[in-house]
TrEMBL record:
Catalyzes the reversible oxidation of 3-phospho-D-glycerate to 3-phosphonooxypyruvate, the first step of the phosphorylated L-serine biosynthesis pathway. Also catalyzes the reversible oxidation of 2-hydroxyglutarate to 2-oxoglutarate. It catalyses: (R)-2-hydroxyglutarate + NAD(+) = 2-oxoglutarate + NADH + H(+); (2R)-3-phosphoglycerate + NAD(+) = 3-phosphooxypyruvate + NADH + H(+). The keyword Iron-sulfur does not apply. Residues 457-530 form the ACT domain. It is an enzyme of class 1 (oxidoreductase). This is D-3-phosphoglycerate dehydrogenase. Pfam families: 2-Hacid_dh, 2-Hacid_dh_C, ACT, PGDH_inter. PROSITE patterns: ACT (PS51671), D_2_HYDROXYACID_DH_1 (PS00065), D_2_HYDROXYACID_DH_2 (PS00670), D_2_HYDROXYACID_DH_3 (PS00671). It comes from Paenibacillus durus ATCC 35681. The lineage of its organism: Bacteria, Bacillati, Bacillota, Bacilli, Bacillales.
Length: 530
């Protein structure tokens, strides 16, 4: 018989499948202090919380029988993940339970924005009957740009279609086939910025998405367009948005999220007549709160019964013998995936991973997750981890193929990551662990190289002609970019070649543009490996 403690207020309906299970006993004890939890947690196999309980290292250490901690929601900031992982306790959340709720809130914000509902309400209840100031616009026939076509963005697009809107959709994993299934038009961010009447944001906050809409984008937008953000604060440059509204470019905005929450009292969003704000209510419905509890309860049962489960946010237990062999490769695998992803242009269709040498006779499933996490982290940021990476790949229809080979091309071990993107684009990165040297990238596409996968790097594709290396070095020096190391790869003299530079700092976008414009250079991309 399994025992589960529910330490935060959760509806009976949300945990009904736990209370009705024949092999489970559920105790609800809310409002407990850390000491009180420590005193009793040793009795329980599972702990179910929302946001009120802080699950500290001491509580986890005291949970001698603890196998799973369930968070009825998305964020797990109140759970010590490192301590849970060390103890082999699986931590799960419920990322899908608030999909419809957040989608509906975004759509409600868009409708309120189109018809000035909050502003008209405020005037009316204050005794001012003012119809002339609130001339709205219809949604029908307008073009909606959806930035991010994951679960929530896809649901917003469905509802917009029902309102007669035309949908331009961007997502780094959105292929033409999937766009056709969703009945949306595949577009770039630039296409959406220039062509949309409304823009709604549904992306994680990553270095690539931070301020993805800022002054340069506002300068080319349709005059009178409108923006909704119910995703993450920081995706849209807040101060640049205020400037665009005041300049008459943007007709209005509706935000449920802020770069800093709660916002300062003098934040311009809070007093601007053309901006609607709500206090991060995207997931705040009765149904969502019940759904996340139901989802977590189901996964808790799977874990306790030793059945397959999803939505874990830390690594599940792995046999020590397997872990000892794989662990040295975790960082290398993740970096190879990240490198391959950063040099890929199109929407990713497939991730091919090949293991050779020492890894050919090992169950590499934990390592596979690190590699896929590396590929996805460029677009998902902190929302992807080593347990949910395979699940996220599946939800975005990215096929993961793992093979093993006996030949290692002269290396004791070799990991090869190949990404196949839409249009047939292929990107291949291979790496190894060299005794005495550590992690090395040894192949990029068809070119052999030898470089450490770390820091800021510039990958340049060029024609093998005299003087190119000097021109690159001169340009970087003129822009205060110092070269730490350089590798050049070619297969034939005078043919296609690559140059891989490690530099001391982030390379400004305008410098990359200048590099790509040099004679005989085809492309120049920055790769950042943490």
């Amino acid at each position: 018989m399994f025992k589960i403690l529910v330490s935060d207020p959760i509806s009976d309906l949300g945990i009904q499948q736990l209370t009705e299970a024949s092999d489970v006993t559920v105790d609800k004890k809310t409002g407990l202090s850390e000491d009180e939890l420590i005193a009793i947690i040793g009795e329980y196999d599972g702990l179910l919380v929302r946001s009120q309980t802080t699950v500290t290292e001491k509580i986890i250490e005291a949970g001698s029988n603890l196998k799973v901690i369930g968070r009825a929601g998305v964020g797990v900031d109140n759970i010590n993940l490192e301590a849970a992982t060390k103890r082999g306790v699986v931590v799960i959340n419920a990322p899908d339970g608030n999909t419809i709720t957040t989608c509906e809130h975004a759509f409600a914000m868009m409708m309120a924005l189109a018809r000035h509902i909050p502003q008209a309400y405020a005037k009316t209840i204050n005794g001012v009957w003012d119809k002339k100031s609130f001339l709205g616009v219809e949604l029908r026939g307008k073009t909606l740009g959806v930035l991010g076509m994951g679960r929530i963005g896809s649901e917003v697009a469905k509802r917009a279609k029902a309102f007669g809107m035309n949908i331009l959709a961007f997502d780094p994993f959105l292929t033409a086939d999937r766009a056709e299934k969703l009945e949306v038009t595949l577009a770039s961010v630039d296409d959406i910025v220039k062509g949309a009447d409304f823009i709604t944001v549904h992306t994680p906050l990553t270095p690539q998405t931070r301020h993805m809409i800022s002054r340069p984008q506002f300068e080319v937008m349709k005059k009178g367009m409108r923006i909704v953000n119910c995703a993450r604060g920081g995706v849209i440059d807040e101060m640049a948005l205020v400037e665009a509204i005041d300049a008459g470019i943007v007709a209005g905005a509706a935000f449920d999220v802020f770069e800093k929450e709660p916002p300062q009292a003098d934040h311009p969003f809070l007093s601007h007549p053309k901006i609607i704000v709500t206090p991060h209510l995207g997931a705040s419905t009765v149904e969502a709160q019940e759904n996340v509890a139901i989802d977590v309860s189901e996964q808790v049962l799977h874990i306790l019964r030793n059945e397959p489960f999803i939505n874990a946010v830390n690594i599940p237990p792995v046999a020590p013998s397997v872990m000892n062999k794989l662990q040295p490769y975790f960082t290398l695998g993740e970096k190879l995936g990240s490198f391959a992803s950063q040099i890929t242009n199109g929407a990713i269709n497939e991730i091919h991973v090949e293991f050779a040498g020492d890894l050919s006779d090992v169950d590499t499933q934990p390592l596979n997750r690190y590699i896929v996490k590396g590929v996805l982290s460029r677009h998902f940021g902190g929302d992807v981890n080593i347990v949910n990476s395979m699940h996220l790949a599946k939800t975005r229809e990215v096929n993961v193929v793992v093979t093993k080979a006996s030949k290692t091309k002269g290396f004791t071990n070799l990991i090869t990551v190949k990404i196949i993107a839409e249009g047939g684009e292929e990107r291949l990165v291979a790496g190894t662990l060299l005794q005495g040297y550590g992690e090395r990238i040894v192949q990029l596409g068809k070119f052999p190289v030898d470089i450490a996968p770390e820091g800021n790097q510039i990958l340049i594709s060029h024609n093998d002609k005299p003087g190119i290396i000097g021109n690159v070095g001169t340009l970087l020096g003129q822009n205060d970019v110092n070269i730490a190391s350089m590798q050049v790869g070619r297969t034939v003299i005078g043919g296609e070649a690559i140059m891989l530079l490690t530099v001391d700092k982030e390379v400004p976008d305008d410098v990359l543009v200048k590099l790509a414009a040099l004679a005989e250079i085809n492309t120049a991309k920055e790769v950042v490996l943490q």
